Amino acid sequence: MADVLHSSVSGIFTRWRDMQDGSHALVVSAGAVLAGTPVLHRSGVVAADVLAAMGTVTCTKIAGAGLTGGAYITNVVAGNAYGRGVAKVGSATITTETTNLRINAAWDPVAGYDWYDLYCTTVAALWSGRVTAAQHAAGVLLSTKGAGSAPNSVDIDVIGTGLAGSLAVQNTAYVIPDPVANCAGYQYVDFLCRFSRTGDAVAPSATLCPFFLNSVTGLYEEGQDWTPSFGGASGAYGAMPKRLRVEHRGATVALVVKALAGTGMSLDCYSVLS
Fold this sequence. Notes:
Elements: E1 3-9, E2 12-18, E3 24-30, E4 39-45, E5 58-62, E6 70-79, E7 88-89, E8 94-96, E9 102-106, E10 115-121, E11 127-132, H1 133-138, E12 140-141, E13 153-156, E14 181-182, E15 188-196, E16 205-213, E17 220-222, E18 241-247, E19 252-261, E20 266-273
Parallel strand pairs: 12-13
Antiparallel strand pairs: 1-2, 2-3, 4-20, 5-9, 6-7, 6-8, 6-10, 9-13, 10-11, 14-19, 15-18, 15-20, 16-17, 16-19
C-alpha cells in the first residue's frame, strides 16, 4: 500500500494510499507546526501571578467631623476584578480629638488595582467603606465620595462596622499572564511544566490554575486548582517535570501561577493542543 504525495498546503500533507482492494484512500498527515507540537508558553516564572503589594499607608489626623475621639487603627486592602491583596496597616495609630475627627490615609497608587477598601476603628480595623482607584487618585472623602483634602489619599470619616482588615492575608488579586493559549478548534491543551530549583533550604511547592476567557465579559474565569506533589520524602515519588491536561472545548486558556515556593524555584512551560 504505497503512499503517493498529492499536495502540501501550510504544512498539511495529503496523500493517496493504494488499498489492497484497488481503491484509494486519502490520508492527511501533519507538517512541522500543528496540534501535538509543544510550543513555549512561559519561561523563567519565579513568582505568583498577582499584583504587587501596596506601599506605605501614611495616616494623619485632619480637621473635620465624622469619627469620635479615640485612638484609631487603619488598614487598606486593594483589589481588582479577580480578588484582593493583603491588608496594609497604617503607618501609625491616630488619636482624634475635638475638631480633628478625620484621618487622612495616603499611599502611592499601584498599577492594576481597581478599588481600595478602608478599615478604621479603635479596637480593630473594621471595614468603613470602599473607593475606586480614580477616586483615590483625585483625593476623596469616604462618606460622600466628594472631594478630599489631597490627591492619592482618602479622608476617613466613617467608623468601621464590617469585617476586619486583618482577615485579608492571602493575595488573590490575580494577573492574567501573557501569553494565553488560543485553543480555537481544539478540545484539549496540555501544559508541559518543568519545575526546577537551586537548593534544598525550602521545600518545593506550587499551585497552578487554568482560567477560561468569557468572551461576553472579557474576564477569565477560574477553573480547578492543581497542586502537584514533588518527591524526595519517604513515600513521595513525584518528579519535577509535570503534565497538566485541560479540557477547554475551544476556549482561550490562561495558566495562572497562584503560588510558587522552594529554594530557587522556577517554572518553564510548554503548551500542546489536541
